[in-house]
Amino acid sequence: MQLVIEHLKKKFEKKEVLKDICFTFEQGKIYGLLGRNGAGKTTLFNCINEDLDVDEGEFYLVDNNKKNTIKPEDIGYVLSTPNVPEFLTGREFLKFFIEINQDRIKKVKSTDEYFDFMKIDEEDRDKLLKDYSHGMKNKMQMLVNIIADPNVLLFDEPLTSLDIVVQEEMKQMLREIKKDHIIIFSTHIMELALDLCDEIVILNKGVLEEVNKENLDNKKFTQ
Questions:
Q1: Which candidate, 213, 153, 210, places its Cα nearest to that of 24?
Q2: For 43, which of 11, 80, 143, 208 is 20 to 30 Å away at the CA?
Q3: Helix (H, G, I), strand (E, B), or coil: what is residue 68?
Q4: Is the pLDDT of residue 60 over 90?
Q5: How would you label 150-167 residue by residue, b for 16+ Cβ within 10 Å and e otherwise?
Q6: For the segment 13-55, what is each residue's pLDDT rounded down to a tens digit?
Q7: Exposure pattern of 28-39 as b/e (b: 16+ CB <10 Å)?
């Protein structure tokens, strides 16, 4: 499966954020989307997720040489700042999500199996989400998107504020699931992209281009 973007453009008033985005993302790879803060990475994700209307261009999925319109259930979008219902416990949130999405989940597992997969400790599973750390909230946000099993997973700098241990856990999890998804991982941290991602694309001055890892200038994009 492929996610194809053709001549996508987006501007805000007179500022042209995305000038002419053309790219094909393939299933089975983690793509590192690099760019300085403000380069337009989140804008690109919001266009793909249809939170923003594009000015020009189109994007679609190709499966077995067939062009398919992207549906809401095709996209999983993990934000940099987790958004979870803090009045629920972790287990209640997970059960609620599974219940309302049971028709689209291919194989439902037990809540504890999901918690085990995401390495959430037993003593934290029945705590209110408001008492979760930022990293744990981020884990829950990532978990429900993975359970939904969309074709495309968009990660908007989800690991930037996590400690090293949690970062390593999340990177390993992404490596385990990449064969079944198209994964685009946004970051402005060069070292993280080089460690995690199979391919690197850079968004700079509104243009998206693929670059060879070996040709990257580390100082240019690391902050």
A1: 210
A2: 143
A3: strand
A4: yes
A5: bbbbbbbbbbeebeeebb
A6: 888 999 999 999 999 999 999 988 888 999 999 999 999 999 9
A7: ebbbbbbbeeeb
